[in-house]
Amino acid sequence: MTRAMFFESHRSSRDGLIAVGSVVMNRVESSDFPNTVCGVVGQRNQFAPGVMTREMNSRAMPEVTEAAVAVLLGERHPRIQNAQFFHAASYHANYNNIHYVLTAGGNAFYEKRRPEHVTRSRPLRAVEGLTGG
């Protein structure tokens, strides 16, 4: 969990960290993905290259570790809902099945839905300060 949060959002806000962790846990709970955190994070082409092997050096490590523990103990970002995906907030994805639920920590988080059920097809304005800690 710490590795996913570190490499996907380590220079980010606590909200961004918790949101990444929440996506990991949503995937763990889904039958579409491996059923362990390491299985999800280690899946090929899903998270940052080298996520399972690269060295983690940063002054942010205490905050990243705290957020990872919080997610493993049950904390979730209140706006993630069922989102299992995210991309950099600056990236424009041109698909008709992306329903955005949150932008935080430099990432836009979304659910994949049938096109007729998408009501937010563009990343939302960034929101921070919703998680404890």
Automatic annotation (TrEMBL):
UniProt domain Cell wall hydrolase SleB: residue ranges: 13-110
Keyword Hydrolase included in the entry's annotation: yes
Record GO terms (molecular function): hydrolase activity
Hydrolase found in the keyword field: yes
InterPro entries assigned: Cell_wall_hydrolase_SleB (IPR011105), SleB_dom1 (IPR042047)
Keywords from the named record: Hydrolase
Classification via Pfam families: Hydrolase_2 (PF07486)
Name of the protein this chain belongs to: Cell Wall Hydrolase
